[in-house]
Specification:
The complex is a heterotrimer, with one copy of chain A (259 residues) and two copies of chain B (193 residues).
Chain A: H1 10-28, H2 32-42, H3 52-68, H4 75-92, H5 109-129, H6 147-150, H7 164-176, H8 188-207, E1 210-211, H9 212-216, H10 222-237, E2 241-245, E3 252-256
Antiparallel strand pairs in A: 1-3, 2-3
Helix pairs in contact in A: 2-5, 3-4, 8-10
Chain B: H1 2-14, H2 21-27, H3 33-50, E1 54-59, E2 62-67, H4 72-79, H5 88-100, E3 103-104, H6 105-112, H7 117-125, E4 129-134, E5 142-146, H8 148-153, H9 165-192
Antiparallel strand pairs in B: 1-2, 3-5, 4-5
Helix pairs in contact in B: 1-3, 2-3, 5-7
The chains are: A mainly alpha (259), B alpha+beta (193).
Amino acid sequence: MLSRYDDFDPDQSMDNEQNLSYAIKLDIFEGPLDLLLYLIKKNEIDIYNIPVALITEQYLQYLKMIKALNLDLAGEYLVMASTLIHIKSRMLLPPPDETEEGEEEDPRAELVRQLLEHKTFKEIASELGNRPLLERDVFVRAASLPEEMEQPMPESEELIEVSVFDLIEAFHRVVSQLDKKELLEIDLEKLSLTDIINDIMDQLAAMKSLTFEDLLKEKKDRRRIIYIFLALLELVKLRMIKAYQTSVFGVIRIFPAVE
Amino acid sequence: MEKIKAIIEALIFASDTPLAPEKIRAVFPDVEKKEIQEIIDQLVSEYHERQGGILLQEVAGGFQFRTNAELGKWVKKLKSTKPHNLSPQAMETLAIIAYRQPIVKSEIESIRGVDVGGPLKNLLEKKLVRIVGRKDVPGKPIIYGTTKKFLEVFNLKNIMDLPNMRELKELNQQQELLMQDMDEEKIQEDVAE
Amino acid sequence: MEKIKAIIEALIFASDTPLAPEKIRAVFPDVEKKEIQEIIDQLVSEYHERQGGILLQEVAGGFQFRTNAELGKWVKKLKSTKPHNLSPQAMETLAIIAYRQPIVKSEIESIRGVDVGGPLKNLLEKKLVRIVGRKDVPGKPIIYGTTKKFLEVFNLKNIMDLPNMRELKELNQQQELLMQDMDEEKIQEDVAE
């Protein structure tokens, strides 16, 4: 029987304990704002005029109790505790110098704002949950249509609904299965070359043969000349085209490698 | 006319998702948009007056036949499906996203006062919430919003159809006014002392 | 009685298979079998007399709502205006072609590790991919590239608009971080539930 506990990992047991306490805590309150709202309700306090000293005291008592029960306390509760103490101390300060310009905001204002917002959303959430929910209160047609209805009309052009993110995701899937060293190196240059390669192949398909000058046309900027030249080199390397020159310094004429 | 009505009824019935009037128009390019809407409205009220088990409802920007919500418990008896059960945490997180979208995680957390990673993942998995983009601030936090499925599940025509959307806005204004009041009171107290 | 009729209508509508009267009885053990059959018959004739787009029909030992068969061609027309998604295989093949074009089939296959004849044909039919030429090596393999329609469908100005490898990596890392965060939180939540 004992042997079952031989490989018992004490660290792990502590983890479990912590997670368990986390669970209990969540069951009681969903965070410090929830706890504060509970205290406000319990004491029948006006949320716009919170007696900070009283609430802080009760809040800290609660934290003590949670600790006494040996429950793990999420950091947010401690942050709220220090906020409360800070507000309390500010409330105790003498009023600001009367000659001082500008309004001094009530130290509680920000907290009240937060509490009201939280309270509002709690109410909205419960209202949202009371709506007629699909698969709980309302149901849609679940049966599939007879097969002949599902077949679309053949002659119509198919629409495709995809985004570039779908494409990237797909590419990720592929790449993630490859070795690191095999990672496809794609950069802007390669891609812009692709455009020009496609363009050249299109023209070749139409014209059967082309000269370098044909390709340059009127757009004779340096960048384009270099790119077209690189594209031609790539095409020759890929064995997609053949290039012929009638004489040294003569016209370079290119043909598709395969008709 | 009666024929078109029957066809539109069939189209809405056959569609797997709520059918937008524009999609119906794609089938009838010759029929006016207004006429299609009128026919749909007729169908909606016919089913409503009939008080049967099926209703034609506007959901997520389209029209769909759905069972009458009052009969839900009976249908559930037959289907024994798992409804979209959301924990209170997930529901509150969803409510915040729905009403405040587009919104980043830290903003949700400042309202809820706790970490929302768990519920957020849950909502993403259920496809009720989606990543809308990234905010152009340091850290490029992810921006969240609700999905079409959210509208379908919660029986909403569109986001403005959310209950109390207007009330909530008013409440926010009231809060701001109150805050001002509080400030003023404080000053008066100060003066009185 | 009217209530039971509405419930039965809702049950038949929401069922994913033709609903047998015995199954309906399982929901209403107190109602006579005969009465249930009568109500179903009533519904059938109501829908029949209405001459609308939906009919209640007896199919395969049960009852099911179906579109009026006479309107079938309209339903088909709707279905064909519905946008289609690409299968994951087609999408992966397309992604490889987009990033690595000009490319021959065997190269795609060496990356994907499977035959891509099917998806490739699909992509050619959809005019997302085209034959750019043939390679001058034994077998004269066909070289593939993307089309103008590809750019249109993916809303790209040109091929350079595709995110490059560095951006892809960054995106991936961020996603992984996000997932890690979420996983950790998920564990806690799971325990909490």
